Amino acid sequence: MINIKTDSRKVKKGDIFVALRGIVGDGHAFIGKAIENGASKIIAEEGSYDVDYEIVKDSREYLNDYLKNNYNKFLEEIHIIGLTGTNGKTTTAYLIYDALRKMGQKCCYIGTIGFYMEGKVCNLSNTTPEVSEVYDMLIKAYDEGYRYAVIEASSEGLLHRRLENIPFEFAVFTNLTQDHLNIHKTMENYAKCKQKLFNQLKEGGKAIVNYDDPNKNIFLLDYNNNITYGFTGGDYKVTDYQMSILGSNFTFINDGVKQNIKVQLIGKYNIYNVLVAIIILRELGFSFSKIADNLYYVDCPPGRMDMVEYKNNRIIIDYAHTPDAIQNVISTVKEVCDGKVYTVFGCTGDRDRTKRPIMTKLVTDSSDFAIITNDDLHNEDPNQIVDDMLKGITNTNYEIELDRKKAIIKGINLLDTNDVLLILGKGHEEVMIVKDNKKIPFNDKKTVLNYLESNKVIRIEKIDD
Known about the structure:
33% helix, 465 residues, six-stranded mixed sheet
């Protein structure tokens, strides 16, 4: 465990506390609490204190240099894989994590669904936590013999330097579509933030870039060792694929050699995700036969195409919350579904408002029927969110039910034979966030299973912690 903290609540006796100025808060306001909790030294940009302290020009710079100088000698011994992109980060990262584990390697994962070592260690407040927390997790893993780590690099995390000085061996770009414009304002700014990851490769490191994405050249930097993948071209090119509701079978070619692989994931977008995992594992030295054997049995991360069977129907819970992700999920399901497709979804409050009507049009265009409901409201009026969602919408195949539990139950009761109910937006999440950051316990999959069990139509299956 490292001895430097940026969260006063996590300070223990003897720790150094660094006061960082953030977007919504200033660590200087919590110095008193840090001292009360036992901080032995304060690093700040102003003030005087009753314990040992140091005033610096830039406390963020101090923190990053301290971590690099004291801990990178250990991190250099870990194969660190960073993934960035609008969609696919979590699934791809988890596939790599789980495949390595199934091949007998000790790998940790840091990202949207939490911090994992052998299993889940804890939830995280952000996809990419504060840099001191990232170092803390990596050093904890290192001390326990882990030599592989997979990290999701969010645009916001990169913007706020939460991964600065981490020695990445691999940097992966999945894709770039509209998201987080409330933070970045333009797609150009959004792309440039993600590009930062590709300037952090250690000597001999490799960049893995989606050849099919129109933004690929932003990430194909001349001074990196680049490997590309895709359907239209690339070093790893998919030449053929078949899909059913139970999985996918695809062929790719690399260095003139064709390889075939079967996985229990559906969707063209998941073939991209699996292909990245194959590239990383091959570059780490594992044989294709071993990779193929283990990828067939990998688990999906919680809340990603998470299926529950109900009579002759399927209920699918997925985290899709961007226009591109929603389109991918619905089009994939329509390709393998013999019945009707119903969708329950909402839009997050205090986030990019411009994508709301885009998402509603996609859902109502592609689904037989949709139920519009609440997602995390934060501090926004749910009626304002719905008004935004319905701007310009001429389709009438929807209803509004703001109570998410009731919306899910209504969706289940629409199912007849060989139908699919999609519940989108929250995936693995365990809470609904409402005004003043209040968190109300809620999980889509648990809601489904509890309702089905209460109506004696299904036995309870294992729920991921």
